[in-house]
Design goal:
alpha/beta; TIM Barrel; eight-stranded mixed β-barrel; about 40% helix; about 20% strand
């Protein structure tokens, strides 16, 4: 009888463990769904981050910049198209619309480690006229050289990046901001080798992967709002 009791107890305990594990899976799934839904409209508190804005991707659909302002956005960064990629005839219109809505405007150039700095800066100067009213230009460091058709060494990537920074700063008349992805920082340690303001990216939680303070933070990469049918990247400025 005692053996049967111990066996029955073990079976009962096993069933409870399975039920608890199943409940944990269900609660975990509910939390993931809630987090996904909440992130659709989440923005950092304006008391902590009073200056906020948006990134508008190249070839975005119609954007209501006045609505970005109504959401608390004070600025918009417009991403330049890839040279040689799909043309972006809407860039000048987005620029005009953002300014007409009273937003401060900047541009983002996505650094291509497979192309020379001279070619990239020539494209930048064609697309971005000299204007003291621009926000500091940003260079997005998100692509690694593994995607290049021909091998490119880390030293060559870093050298071309320094050249590009100098060329864009000469054209813009102000220092660039480095929009630094975690993978690029891990590979090239750009936050330590380049003394420029940083723009880091991490949904909801403040990023710390650069090892030093940041100026801009992409806090929600896919904010859904009335400003656009497509999600926009929401950004805040460090006080």
């Amino acid at each position: 009888m005692a053996r049967r009791g111990r066996k029955s107890g073990r079976v009962g305990a096993g069933r409870w463990l399975l039920r608890l594990a199943a409940l944990g899976v269900v609660l975990g799934g509910v939390f993931v769904v809630w987090l996904w839904w909440d992130m659709r409209s989440w923005r950092p508190d304006e008391t902590t981050f009073p200056e906020q804005g948006a990134v508008i991707a190249s070839n975005s659909a119609a954007v209501r910049f006045a609505t970005i302002g109504a959401l608390g956005g004070a600025f918009a960064y417009l991403e330049l198209p890839d040279e040689g990629g799909a043309p972006d005839p809407g860039f000048p219109a987005r620029l005009s619309a953002a300014r007409e809505a009273g937003l401060k405007v900047g541009v983002i150039h996505v650094f291509d480690p497979c192309r020379s700095a001279d070619a990239q800066s020539a494209f930048f100067t064609r697309m971005v006229p000299r204007d003291a009213g621009w926000l500091p230009p940003a260079i997005a460091l998100t692509r690694l050289a593994e995607t290049c058709a021909e091998p490119v060494s880390d030293a060559a990537v870093e050298s071309e990046l320094v050249t590009l920074i100098n060329q864009i700063e000469t054209h813009a008349g102000k220092p660039v901001i480095l929009k630094l992805a975690r993978n690029f920082q891990a590979r090239h340690r750009s936050a330590q080798s380049l003394e420029r303001d940083l723009w880091l990216m991490r949904d909801r939680a403040q990023p710390d992967y650069a090892g030093r303070p940041w100026l801009l933070w992409s806090a929600n990469s896919s904010l859904m709002s009335e400003a656009s049918e497509e999600p926009v990247e929401w950004v805040v400025v460090q006080k």
